[in-house]
């Protein structure tokens, strides 16, 4: 029997004009990227600002099952969701944000970890045990994997893949697991944080449980963020709405697969439902799986008509040509694993878009047409045959 939802006291958002999040993202990207100039040295007036490039779990997720000959699928070589990974992304010119997953331990500490369960070998016989991250206290969580104190030996860290295999989790460049507070204190302040509020799809949460976890996260953010840009996002519709009610300082985005996967909760099954949720709850944007946008390009205009910002995530965002297409479509930002490659590619987009533009006449379509003629990307057969 489902538990009745507990009452929770929330702080209603203050009556204030909605921020133009897309403009803020564009401005941050412009500050983070080299500015193209004309022959006279002035910035081209007609240039479209670059997409915001967001490092996925820092400098890229660890895809343990990827074939060695497929570096594009392998993802990051630094252990994901660690200070080292975040700072590696921050060091790349053009990266405006790093994205990471936050869960709250049993004793109320927000920690950064993607998977719902954490696995290790408990003894020399190779016996594998898995525990839910939110069932651990902080000390136990930090005992897994590489340790900051070199004199301590951490528990071997394993990872369960979607196909059920459990593999040893190793990265070329290692680092210890970390807390949200450590990220605010130890990551280059040049980059903003895209904080994904992580909840298990297989659990039903009461409003009180969601509120307790969100308040623990907000306490750290309010105390340590300072002037760093922060975006909240979540696949959990109730959590996304609740974090918007609990604060109005930072924008909240709804994460969605946009229909590329189906869930019992209809709010998660289409871009139309995502827009409806955002408008009703006063959220500022949508983060969609990129395939959903490529399947429904007309949805971009509808999202913008609703005054929402749009970012995307997914493996196809590691293909520069796919990112370029999104730039032309009007997407505001992309979450990527191949951080250096995509950031470098995106830095060239405004120069092409503004090459023949002027401040008089010539709409956006004309400028983009000029860009396509001047520097149309070359799509290879494998890249054009992606299944979406």
Task: Summarize the structure in short.
The protein has 15 helices and 14 strands.
Report on the structure:
The chain is an alpha/beta fold. It has 15 helices and 14 strands. An eight-stranded parallel β-barrel has the order 1-2-9-10-11-12-13-14, surrounded by seven helices. It has a two-stranded antiparallel sheet with strand order 4-5. A two-stranded antiparallel sheet has the order 6-7. Helix 7 links the parallel strand 10 and strand 11. Helix 5 runs parallel beside helix 6 and helix 6 crosses helix 7. The N terminus and C terminus are likely disordered. InterPro entries: GDPD, GP_PDE_dom, PLC-like_Pdiesterase_TIM-brl. Belongs to the glycerophosphoryl diester phosphodiesterase family. Keywords: Glycerol metabolism, Hydrolase. It catalyses: a sn-glycero-3-phosphodiester + H2O = an alcohol + sn-glycerol 3-phosphate + H(+). Its EC number is 3.1.4.46.
Task: Name the features.
globular, disordered C terminus, 388 residues, alpha/beta, 8-stranded parallel barrel, two-stranded antiparallel sheet, disordered N terminus, 17% strand
Strand composition percent: 15-25%
DSSP summary, beta strand count:
14
Low-confidence stretches: 1-19, 31-47, 351-388
Helix content: 25-40%
Query: For the CA atoms, what is the radius of gyration?
Result: 21 Å
Q: How are the SSEs placed, and which strands pair?
A:
Elements: H1 21-32, E1 52-56, H2 71-74, H3 83-90, E2 95-104, E3 110-112, E4 117-121, E5 128-132, H4 138-142, E6 158-160, E7 166-168, E8 178-179, H5 180-186, E9 192-197, H6 207-224, E10 230-234, H7 237-246, E11 252-256, H8 271-281, E12 285-289, H9 290-295, H10 298-305, E13 309-313, H11 320-329, E14 333-336, H12 339-347, H13 349-353, H14 364-375, H15 381-384
Parallel strand pairs: 1-2, 1-14, 2-9, 9-10, 10-11, 11-12, 12-13, 13-14
Antiparallel strand pairs: 2-3, 3-8, 4-5, 6-7
Helix pairs in contact: 5-6, 6-7
């Amino acid at each position: 029997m489902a538990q009745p939802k507990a009452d929770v006291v929330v702080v209603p958002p203050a009556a204030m004009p909605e921020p133009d999040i897309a403009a803020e993202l564009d401005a941050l990207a412009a500050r983070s990227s080299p500015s193209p100039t004309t022959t006279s040295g002035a910035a081209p007036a007609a240039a479209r600002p670059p997409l915001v490039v967001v490092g996925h779990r820092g400098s890229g997720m660890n895809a343990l099952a990827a074939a060695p000959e497929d570096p594009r699928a392998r993802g990051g070589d630094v252990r994901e969701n660690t200070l080292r990974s975040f700072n590696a992304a921050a060091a790349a010119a053009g990266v405006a944000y790093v994205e990471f997953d936050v869960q709250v331990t049993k004793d109320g500490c927000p920690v950064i970890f993607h998977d719902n369960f954490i696995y290790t070998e408990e003894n020399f016989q190779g016996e594998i045990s898995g525990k839910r991250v939110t069932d651990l206290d902080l000390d136990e969580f930090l005992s897994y994997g590489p340790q900051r104190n070199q004199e301590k030996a951490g528990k071997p860290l394993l990872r369960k893949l979607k196909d059920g295999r459990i593999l040893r989790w190793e990265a070329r460049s290692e680092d210890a697991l970390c807390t949200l507070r450590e990220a605010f204190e130890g990551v280059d302040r040049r980059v903003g944080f895209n904080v994904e509020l992580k909840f298990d799809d297989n659990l039903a949460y009461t409003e009180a449980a969601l509120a307790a976890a969100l308040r623990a996260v907000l306490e750290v953010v309010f105390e340590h963020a300072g002037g760093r840009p922060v975006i909240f996002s979540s696949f959990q519709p109730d959590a996304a709405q609740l974090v918007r009610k609990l604060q109005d300082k930072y924008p909240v985005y709804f994460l969605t697969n946009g229909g590329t996967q189906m869930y019992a909760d209809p709010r998660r099954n289409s871009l139309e439902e995502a827009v409806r949720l955002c408008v009703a709850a006063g959220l500022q944007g949508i983060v969609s799986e990129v395939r959903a946008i490529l399947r429904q390009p007309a949805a971009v205009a509808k999202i913008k008509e609703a005054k929402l910002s749009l970012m995307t995530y997914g493996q196809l965002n590691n293909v520069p040509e796919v990112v370029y297409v999104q730039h032309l479509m009007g997407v505001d930002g992309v979450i990527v694993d191949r951080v250096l490659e995509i950031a470098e590619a995106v830095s060239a987009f405004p120069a092409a878009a503004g090459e023949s533009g002027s401040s008089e006449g010539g709409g956006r379509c004309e400028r983009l047409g000029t860009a396509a003629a001047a520097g149309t990307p070359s799509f290879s057969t494998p890249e054009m045959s992606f299944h979406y």
